[in-house]
Amino acid sequence: MKRLPNPLTYARADMPGGQKLLLHLVERSHGIERASRRYDAWRSGFDLYEGDAMNRLLAACDIKLDMRGEAWPPICAPGRPLLMIANHPFGVPDGVAALALAEQIGRPVKILIHADLLRIPEIEPFALPIDFSETRAALQINAASGREAIARLQTGETIMIFPAGGIATADWPLGVACDLPWKTFVAKLVHKARADVVPLHFSGQNSWMFHAASRVSMFLRTSLIMPEALRCMGRTIEVRVGATIPYEQMCGITDRTELTALLRRRVFALCPHEVSADRVGRIRAMSSGRTSPTRNAHFKVEPIRAGWPSRRPNERAG
Fold first, then answer.
1. For the domain that residue 59 is a member of, what is the CATH number?
2. The pTM is what?
3. Which domain holds residue 153?
4. Is residue 31 included in any domain, yes or no?
5. Is 306 within a domain?
6. Which pLDDT tens digit goes with each residue over 98-140?
7. pLDDT for 24-56, tens place per residue?
8. Where are the alpha helices (DSSP H) in 53-167?
9. CB 178 within 8 A of CB 277
10. Number of structural domains found in the chain
11. Under a CB-based contact definition with an 8 Å cutoff, are residues 23 and 11 in contact?
12. What does the DSSP 8-state code read for residue 315?
């Protein structure tokens, strides 16, 4: 019987043999086989789950959430558009956690995520894919996902988005990770759908190896995404919840860059000890002429243009 590829691995059939071998070795040394057994047990009952599939996945991964701040789930008026936003320190674990929290609100939910994660078939019903390949097909996929996100918000569904579009990265291996620059697409969603916003903050960051690999190559960075997720198994992630921001408090901020900056501040204000680090990272990036605190001669962060449509500086919302 032909063995089916493991959907949890980041190895692809079109990878050079050496890269594929290295990726398998790294993932296996970090326990991907154990994670695969838990994944198989979870998906075996997927069709029986009723509105709590992601909460069951979180439990299968033995990841607990330490909820701080406002009560969860938030009180939402029926049919009112709701957009959940958060920083992105880990990659996979905070994505699953965000979906699990969104399920608890009790209405349909979609998350804007990297298209690579659609290789896990059970994620597809929850996903609006973003393709970072910068091809014509990728731009079409991203535009379609953007339109669908707005349409679903307008029908009263919940949309989850990580406005950074990529995993937080440190300037140096032992440094404090900072979110990548937030894309103004989040402001477009707010205004187009007239959505309320729930800010979340996930505390923590990936290991020094991830940040070191990020300075060398995109392949090495990618090869550690799943191992970093495996490190979170059996751990507790602290989640801070902010007060829901009604659209009426944002409708007067028509400049997308200004609104995006406001939403970022509201997220990081939930965890005061990370505010200064986030601010330092952004100032350092601007002073060095980089668009991201993690860009340098060795490493280029996930492409921005394909994933989150950019705009001209003076473009207004709408």
1. 3.40.1130
2. 0.82
3. 17-287
4. yes
5. no
6. 999 999 999 999 999 988 888 888 888 999 999 877 788 989 9
7. 787 777 778 888 888 888 888 877 777 899 999
8. 53-60, 92-103, 136-154
9. yes
10. 1
11. yes
12. P
